[in-house]
Amino acid sequence: MGKTGGEFQTVGIVGLGLIGGSLAKAISQNTSCQVLGLDIDEETMEQALKEGAVSGKLTCPAQCNLLIVALFPQAALDYIEAVAPKLTPGTVVMDICGVKEVLAQRAGEACAKWGLHFVGCHPMAGKEKWGYANASSNLFANASLILTPGPSSGEAVEQVRRFAMEIGFASTVVTTPQNHDRMISYTSQLAHVLSNAYIKNPLCLEFKGYTGGSFQDLTRVAKLNPVMWSELFLFNRENLMADIDILIDHLSQYKKALAAGDREGLNALLAQGSRLKEQLLEEKGE
Questions:
Q1: Which of 73, 81, 74 is nearest to 99 (CA)?
Q2: pTM for the whole structure
Q3: What angle do CA 126, 129, 130 make, to 5 degrees?
């Protein structure tokens, strides 16, 4: 079967970092779409052109059927609001930020005003390294893409869903922007906070020879892009603060049991957590 591009003939990607660069490579490899890219770093732009991730520089967004904005949240908002009046009505605008409610409100409103179809998206894939140099066409293999439709999305949601499967995503999940932010606060943002805080124990530098993998597992996402993650945390701070409070409450229960020498209470706390993990494994069929 030959490559197709679905309803999208020309795809523009603004921001060719890890995710934007990987999308460019995946689209170029798996579809017949013309992929145009834009990045403020000239070396990145040159490398993307040299490797064939993009076929040209995005100079006229109005020629795109699909415009993917792969920038940090505030920059994505600023760009979409600025470019929306210049796009062709009917264009699908897709962002890939790790927070969705603020994008749905502001970017969704700007797109609706100019007859554009805004679809908020969040690829559930990444690495502990960032930038175009670490981009890969198979980054999204076995990954899920979360889609958060807005009032002006219409048929574009189904178009983007089909396109995502074509370029390598294993599945898609459609939800509201509010539910996305609530869930991602727990499943991703809190995990990064915990990992980053856990590694600050002075003993971390002496771990070699003292772990069978637990330390590595828990500290894996301690290495992050602080500029990006701090912005994500602040845009979703109400959800994240609530999840941190729940975590602190549970940690205090373990500390209280230890302080009291309460083996029965400690056993109950550990058993409860173990049962929850078993339940998750059963649901996955493991």
A1: 73
A2: 0.90
A3: 80
d(CA 172, CA 165): 8
User: What is the distance between the alpha carbons of residues 208 and 195, in angstroms, rounded to a whole number?
Assistant: 18
| Chain center to CA of 11 | 19
Query: Cα separation of 163 and 85, whole Å?
Result: 25
- Helix and strand totals (H; E) in the chain: 11, 8
CB 278, CB 270: distance < 8 Å: no
Pairing of strands 144-149, 117-123: antiparallel
Q: How many CB atoms lie within 10 A of CB 47?
A: 18
Tokens of 8: 């999208």
73 near 101, Cβ under 8 Å? no
pLDDT along the chain (286 residues), means of 10: 65 96 95 94 94 95 96 96 96 95 93 95 82 90 92 87 93 96 97 97 92 91 93 97 98 98 97 95 80
DSSP, collapsed to helix, strand or coil, labels residue 141 as strand
Neighbours of 4 (CB within 10 A): 14
Report residue 212: phi and psi, to 5°.
Answer: -100, 5
Whether the Cβ atoms of residue 8 and residue 159 lie closer than 8 Å to each other: yes
